[in-house]
Write a structure and sequence with these properties.
heterodimer; A: 646 residues; alpha/beta; Rossmann fold; 4 domains; 6-stranded parallel sheet; 24 helices; globular; B: 111 residues; mainly alpha; Cytochrome Bc1 Complex, Chain D, domain 2; 50% helix
Chain lengths: 646, 111
Amino acid sequence: MAKSKKTSVDRRGFLKGAAAGAAALVAKPQIADAQQAAAQQAGGQNGQQTAQNRGVSGTAAEPTQVALARETGGRPGGAARIIEHPGSDYMVDVIKSLNIEYLAANPGSTYESLHESLINYGDNKMPEFLTCCHEESAVAMAHGYAKIEGKPMMALIHGDIGLQHASMAIYNAYVDRVPIYMVVGNHADGARRAPGVQSLHSAQDLGALVRDYTKWDDEPLSLGHFAESAVRAYNIAMTPPGGPVLIVCNAEIQGDPMQGPAPRIPKLTLTTPPAGDIAAVREAAKILIDAERPQIIAQRMARTPEGMTLLVELAELLQAPVNSQERMNFPTRHPLAGTGWQGYQPDVTLNLEVGDILPQARTDRARGAKTIQITAVSISHKSNIQDFGHYADIDLDIGADAQATLPALIEEVKKQLTPDRKSAFQARGVKLAEAHKKARDQQIEQAQYGWDSSPVSLGRLCAELWPLIKDEDWSLVSPQGFIGNWPNRLWKFDKHHQYIGGQGAGGMGYGAPASVGAALANRKHGRLSVNIQTDGDMNYAPGVLWTAAHHRIPLLSIMHNNRGYHQEVMFVEDQAVLHNRGADRSHIGTKLWDPNIDYAKMAQAYGMHGEGPITSPDELVPALKRGIEIVKKGEPAMIDVVTQPR
Amino acid sequence: MRLLLLASFAALACAQSPAGDAKHGKELFLSYACYSCHSFDGHGGAGARLVPMPLNQAGFIAFVRNAGRMPSYSSKILSDEKLADIYAYIKTLPASPDAKNIPLIQELIRE
């Protein structure tokens, strides 16, 4: 194979220098030569040595100076080497074709060539590099971003060590059906990788580490293969049910020089979401129209604002209550929001993208009700991780994306709806509206309990916050499960971007980085992002606060600082009582006190406004106002509020 | 439903026990993590509201021994004396203001 003269000479000189400095290498020149030749053969289409095969002249047993420098974290000196058109430049062209705004990454040498190409050849635009302090933060930021923006952000990950750091965040996104675009560096070619850290950070089948909860992965063997897989991966991530995808990007392909014309970049055409079979949809419409007390349960249903609009139309046609969970599926103050009046026993439930449907199906069966399910997850199962939940008795199971199926279902309901049923629906709607108003008033009144308490009650916190944000274009970018769902109970949610839902797989450490990612997506829309941040979650990877400060991501974080993993306090207490011993020891291993963590100082240390701890409700509003002022100027801020447990 | 259950225990209890030690009761309320479900001021959270306490002391002890959703504490874990102390502490906790007297809550209801 032909060699690039300049590169060859440079590399030769470099390797000679390395060999001259290592007496051990001199003793085995033939072996070194043979390995070098093999490395050249393995060096891609032209057999050149590149930035990635430096050090290959040494054996695994006897490392070169280059390898030794690598192992000790240093960089070798040597003669000048220039690769003007590395493969990673072309990879940037491919990535740019996908219109990805940002990439989040913790730096690592397995993708160093691509890193450099992204910031110089790609001018650090589309995507723009976001410096992260942990791979879990990078992936969770992408998770939060996608929930607002409806498309993937990229996470660039360093070899097997970075991927293992990222793994929990990947799993959360997988269960949450959220698209994330991951590129992971690797030193696949054993003959070209240096001993030591390059071996430690590489894998034979890197994608296998997270394959059980990654929607699709590939390890391209050439630039043309990279282009095809990169575009395919984006499409797969976006096709419902969405999910994280992963491209393993070998250092050799990144760093080898481009030869000849660049491979064509395939056109990205998103696959249309799977919609329900029309005969099944027709049957669903009939069952719903015939029902006396239907109920709609929506979890990960509304992928986009259009999903909300469609669900409102269906609910109003049927005059059926909507129990919305996990996503912003339905306006919280719509008269049909809720579960119906007291004693409302559904005779049909329509379950839209509901996770583990067994509890609902079991309840339906016990009362003789019918269960209809529409979910794309039915046609996209894996085996190992049990996120698919239980098998359940379903009367009509439509394997399709619920949002994509709603237009047909709405049309079928319109077609089949008779004046008699319409009249009955209207009467039901009046009763449901009354029940909604009554339930809502009761929920708001509940905020009175602990109103004057210190530590601050979560009801008081959320009640005081609402008047300060309600006239802004606000967005709650944190889960509500650990804050008593107080925002849902008190605030008026009527836009898709106003709530991003929960963790997905319930993995803690999601909240802080997801809120930063969602706030990043909200930034260009000028929205006020609010994160009610639990303390246990905050402490997984607090470095994401620095990322928010460094990249000027406006985000108001309010600590729900109950000084512990509160749910676990209750669980351990429960177990102690069950075992009839030591119920005064449930704080062991569950509390975050002695010393108390100072979140205001933590925020300040990472470069953002921080104040607190606030323990009295009277101090709350002035502090929240100061925080909002800072966030509206484009900076993050944190207010530490010491709170009641829940 | 929860209040009905509490009330039934109140009806069962007929004897008044000696007054407990509220100061010790506070220590027990914290160390036995009563606050984790009922909040530091007894205004509820994951668990029921304790303020205002609808039970007399004997009814309270009977309830804790045979709770429903809440774990049932045996006398080995919490003696009657300790529960009497906790009860005394709960009785010192102030009630919340009525929602009707909280302007912000009324504003939220009117929205």
